[in-house]
Amino acid sequence: MGECNEPVGAMGVLAVSANTPQPPSIPNDSQPIWILVVKDMEERNAMGTEKHGTPLQAFNGRDALIDAYQEVLDAAVYLRQAIEERESANSREG
What we know:
Low-confidence stretches: none
Strand content: under 5%
Shape: extended
Order of helices and strands: HH
Distance between the termini: 10 Å
Helix content: 40-55%
Number of helices: 2
Mean pLDDT: 87
Structural class: mainly alpha
């Protein structure tokens, strides 16, 4: 792994604000992320249809805002886990 040049504060928390602007994207030969996302969405649709017996539809008896909010909360926790694991790995290396 490369050297981490990001300042790390107490408890291994990234000292740079989460609102620090990112540098411009660098064009490369990687597959476009939208292609990967669409593929993932198609697979999730198939999995959801298999699990629930129907594709996701409007007026399905659920509150879509609550479902989405709960998913976003889960995503925030997974993202913070990934940041913590990356920062911990970087601090062990350097």
